[in-house]
Specification:
The protein is of the alpha+beta class. The chain is built from three helices and nine strands. Bound molecules: nickel (II) ion.
């Protein structure tokens, strides 16, 4: 089932996300719905709060980027309760990011593209892996959602100022978007 994407300004994106246990109700259905929603909206990653569920679940599929980043061919992963350690010894890299929850906005974000990731898969088996490059960025972007953080929280104050009116409109539901959206309830426009 394709779920609506919760948009900047909706409180669900700024709420705490619960650790997921094997008895989490409807877990596998939720993951399937997240996948379906992400492919439909042409995202490369999605976090549960973006579909209105405050749980520590992320799905990533970066295969579409394989033309620019051959190492990403066929790479997809379900991350349950992911934990990231960033390698602070290497310099940050600046690249443009976007987000299904912040439609129409793309901004440069500096991140260290070298991490150690620990996570559980759908069967709750523990995994860990060193990840570098673009995938390390995508993982951080998605895991940020689990910490109530959006990529626009990581841009320069000047850039933030420049997109302020677009963000204010987004909170009011005034944004064009080619997928189903859920806006902040109090100020929902339609
Ligand atoms: Ni995002």
């Amino acid at each position: 089932m394709i779920l609506p994407i919760y948009i900047y300004g909706h409180p669900v994106l700024r709420a705490d996300n619960a650790v997921v246990t094997p008895d989490y109700p409807g877990l596998h259905e939720l993951i399937e719905n997240m996948k379906e929603t992400m492919y439909k909206t042409q995202g490369i990653g999605i976090a549960a709060p973006q579909v209105g569920v405050n749980a520590r679940i992320v799905y990533i599929d970066v295969d579409v980027l394989a033309e620019d980043f051959p190492e990403l061919k066929g790479v997809n992963m379900v991350l349950i309760n992911p934990e990231i350690t960033i390698d602070e010894t290497v310099p940050g890299v600046t690249r443009e990011e976007g987000c299904l929850s912040v439609p129409g906005i793309h901004e440069n974000v500096q991140r260290i593209e070298k991490i150690h990731l620990r996570w559980q898969d759908e069967q709750f088996e523990l995994h860990e892996q060193d990840i570098e490059g673009y995938l390390a960025r995508v993982v951080q972007h998605e895991c940020d959602h689990l910490e109530k953080t959006l990529f626009i929280d990581r841009i320069s104050p000047i850039r933030k100022q420049l997109i302020r009116s677009k963000l204010n409109n987004m909170v009011k539901g005034k944004v064009s978007c080619d997928y189903r959206c859920k806006f902040a309830p109090a100020r929902r426009k339609k």
